[in-house]
Write a structure and sequence with these properties.
Keywords: FAD, Flavoprotein, Monooxygenase, NADP, Oxidoreductase. Helices cover 20% and strands 15% of the residues. It is of the alpha/beta class. It folds into two domains: 155 residues, FAD/NAD(P)-binding domain; 175 residues, no CATH class. Strands 7-15-8-9-12 form a five-stranded parallel β-sheet. A three-stranded antiparallel β-sheet has the order 3-4-5, with no helix packed on it. The two termini are 25 Å apart.
């Protein structure tokens, strides 16, 4: 995806900079453009970022598009982008880059293999690595996992049918993909769904929910003709300008403001600071700060309902249709789950000889609830992310190896 806009600006650079045209080539290993949106999407998948933040500023989506594009619609948008800017002649599809190395002259030699198996070398002055970070699945080491009948990574998950019927499904990883798949599982004819996490997460819906006023007096939500604004457009931007005074830059004052604003808002709206209507699985207090937290833009009361407290607050979203669903999926009626819930559990320490999950004691409520449960998964789905690898870089070139992200030394990164 990033490669497309990079290619577009390189091909048009001579028009803005009054220089000679740039010869640019984009190599795509798959048969079509789109990366993960083409090869690794699953049933009912939607993007979690607002359409105007997801799409490029030089090619806007249709006004009629929903706030959150489906994966299929976004893929169409990318193809429309290529057509609009005539990028296709410079794109080499089904072409795998097998090596990149530096030459003594300072140029880079790119070796690539085309669809017909022919290996070609191309010398260029600069390279832009836009291959993404979701290529090589990260597979955790869990003793005894080979005793489970079906184990797949989320990269290979496509549809509800993969759960089977009357099966116990365990999903490892509480990110947006993990919560998505958990919701698909609980709304399928499965026996039980268990979601495992390492050390907490902070879940919010991707669209600001409509509050229910005075629920203790029978208040209910009322559908609005226009949905509320997306969460990623509701930004607390105190003191955020193009210029930041050194005193503010070198302190955490504004981050502390954001932190208090975020937690107070979530408490006022739902009665809990851990996440929006999130009653279990929160991030530990010692590292729960806005400057360190990545919000998981998925929320489901099917996961938290059994832990929900009963605080005396006047405004809640717990009866809102939005939080009854994992936000990456089209909104469905809560009854679609048959009033079932998703069990949250700690990360498994091992799987016994009899195929039973044994959970790590993390001292949390979910461990106390699940420690004596006999959970024998028929299906384990690893929503455990990806390893960041760039195998095409030569390990040793004329000027040594190419640096990786771990070699960066700017601003303590």
């Amino acid at each position: 995806v990033v490669g497309l806009v990079t290619l577009k600006y390189l091909l048009s650079a001579h028009k803005q900079l009054s220089t000679t045209p740039v010869e640019a080539r984009l190599f795509e290993a798959n048969n079509d453009i789109g990366g993960v949106f083409c090869t690794r999407v699953y049933e009912d998948a939607e993007l979690v970022s607002f359409k105007y933040l997801t799409t490029f500023s030089d090619f806007r989506p249709h006004d009629s598009d929903p706030d959150f594009l489906s994966a299929k619609r976004y893929l169409q948008y990318l193809n429309d982008y290529c057509e609009h800017f005539n990028l296709s002649p410079a794109i080499y599809l089904a072409t795998v880059v097998i090596a990149v190395k530096r030459l003594e002259t300072g140029v880079h030699m790119v070796s690539y293999r085309s669809k017909d198996g022919v290996v070609t070398e191309w010398a260029c002055d600069a390279i832009a690595v836009c291959s993404g970070l979701h290529v090589t699945p990260s597979i955790p080491s869990i003793d005894g996992i080979d005793r489970v009948q079906t184990v797949i990574h989320s990269a290979d998950f496509k549809a509800r049918s993969q759960f089977g019927v009357d099966k116990t499904v365990a999903i490892l990883g509480p990110g947006e993909t993990g919560l998505d798949i958990s919701y698909l599982a609980i709304t399928s004819p499965t026996k039980r769904v268990v979601l495992c996490h390492h050390d907490g997460f902070c879940a919010v819906p991707k669209q600001a929910p409509e509050p229910v006023m005075f629920p203790m007096f029978g208040g209910r939500s009322h559908p609005k003709p226009d949905p509320n604004v997306p969460i990623d457009t509701v930004v607390a931007s105190l003191f955020d300008t193009a210029y930041v005074h050194p005193t503010l830059r070198d302190s955490k004052a504004h981050w502390n403001y954001y932190d208090n604003q975020q937690k107070t808002s979530m408490w006022f709206m739902s009665g809990t600071r851990e996440g929006l209507d999130q009653w279990v699985g929160g991030i530990p207090e010692q590292r729960y700060h806005a400057s360190k937290t990545r919000l998981t833009k998925s929320a489901s009361s099917l996961l938290h309902k059994v832990y929900q407290g009963n605080p005396l607050y006047l405004c809640t979203i717990s009866d809102s249709p939005i939080v009854h669903h994992v936000a990456e999926n089209p909104l469905l009626d809560h009854a679609s789950s048959n009033r079932r819930h998703i069990d949250l559990a700690p990360w498994p320490s091992h799987i016994s000889d009899h195929g039973l999950l044994h959970f790590q004691d993390n001292g949390r409520p979910e461990y106390q609830r699940m420690r004596d449960e006999k959970v024998k998964p028929d299906v384990v789905i690893l929503a455990t992310g990806y390893n960041q690898t760039f195998p095409f870089f030569e390990t040793e070139g004329f000027h040594g190896s190419y640096p990786s992200a771990s070699d960066a030394d700017v601003r303590e990164i």
